[in-house]
Write a structure and sequence with these properties.
540 residues; mainly beta; Immunoglobulin-like; seven-stranded mixed β-sheet; five-stranded mixed β-sheet; 4 helices; 39 strands; elongated; integrin binding; cell membrane; transmembrane helix; repeat; disulfide bond
Length: 540
Amino acid sequence: MPGKMVVTFGASNILWMVFAVSQAFKMEIFPEHRVVAQIGDVISLTCSTTGCESPSFSWRTQIDSPLNGKVRNEGTKSTLTMDPVSFNNEHAYVCTATCGSMKLEKGIQVEIYSFPKDPEMHLSGPLELKKPVTVTCLVPDVYPFDRLEINLLKGNDLLKSKEFLEPMDRKSLETKSLEATLIPDQEDIGKALVCRAKLNIEEIDFEPKERETTKKLQVYISPKNTVIFVNPYTRLQEGGSVTMTCSSEGLPAPQIFWSKKLDNGNLQLLSGNATLTLIAMRIEDSGIYVCEGVNQVGKNGTEVELIVEVAPRDTAILVSPSSILEEGSSVNMTCSSNGLPAPKILWSRQLNNGHLQPLSENSTLTLTSTKMEDSGIYVCEGINQAGISRKEVELIIQVAPKDIQLIAFPSESVKEGDTVIISCTCGNVPKTWIILKKKAETGDTVLKSRDGAYTIHKVQLEDAGVYECESKNEVGLQLRSLTLDVKGRENNKDYFSPELLVLYCASSLIIPAIGMIIYFARRANMKGSYSLVEAQKSKV
């Protein structure tokens, strides 16, 4: 009996303890039931317990997908953080808390959307009166786009509305847009253009559900009716002055720009003021002046021609390719002269008696296949009612060197110790440079010649070799060469004497000695002399 009583008491005590634990172990999750998050934001789900000192936690999705978040457990609290929120976080999440043998679970639904920015408004161009322009209202990165509505308003008037009800075949951020054509009129000036976007998801709570962008209409009128007033006249005397005033209509008021039209058609900017004044005018000031009224949507211009009447001046001649030519080539001589009215051009050639021989009335005088007789002075005259301006150029026709002659006197073959003169001549062409050289593998040596002649006194063996003459001027050159042969002095001994025969037979003994003698002899020749005594001293 006592033993039974103990067992009964122990069992009841255990049941009471389990009941007490089950009553004390509780769990809460925040936020409750559902949370709405924008894609790209950060959200945290927190699971906490009471009644247990060291609970354990786990998180999962109801469809066992990856959490796509980071879990952090701290004592009686566990937090699941999603940073950033993406499409992969659109699930029902379940938090499980365990305390010994007790387990509690609670779930929370994560719903996502994307509506991050105000609409963007783009115009295909500036708003010009009575000209159509395309207005684009663009809403970026929307999800779910099938709940999106875009409205475009001008003031209080609805221009266009669009809903995007097409089915979504996949989860993605979409950029949606609305386009409308606007033809501004005078009454639109100052009105507001509004692009309003709504994300109509009533079943979930988020802010803002409506975004808008406003642009104040600035209507432009392109410049027109541009006019110029000239004081005193458009025809002026050299040294005079003129004032020109320009005006132009438009909205906003056009800015005035003055330019001068160049010969190539380009405009040279002169001023940004309505009035342009020119003083002490010269011939360079003659020409066409352009006034333009310019604003944001266009420009409108008009022009006036100013004429400064002056005598011809600054007459110039351009020779191509050069005033010094090779015989047979062609040359173009172009003449220009400033003056008003534009001067007439007259080409002439100056004769030996000083008179002028008329050649052409074109601005360009062309000579083809030139000869030496075409050399001379050519004259260009610029002529108008106010006077004459004259410019001249000297044309020089050159002939390339030819008939060059290179000779060695008395002969190209001489004996050591003789005197020889190497002479180069080019008799038919003046102003010709003559250069004499001695060729060598180590480099050419330019000889100090006089009038194309180079004299060698007491010719040495090393003077033998190739000599070259180069005759040149501005238009060409010509080369000639000769080979100078220098023979050594011979003694009177018969090369076929018995002694020579004996020497030949004993060549195997004396060849080294002869080689040494030749070696030292050449060294002596390089110094300008040779001495057997010195050679022997060197050998010793």
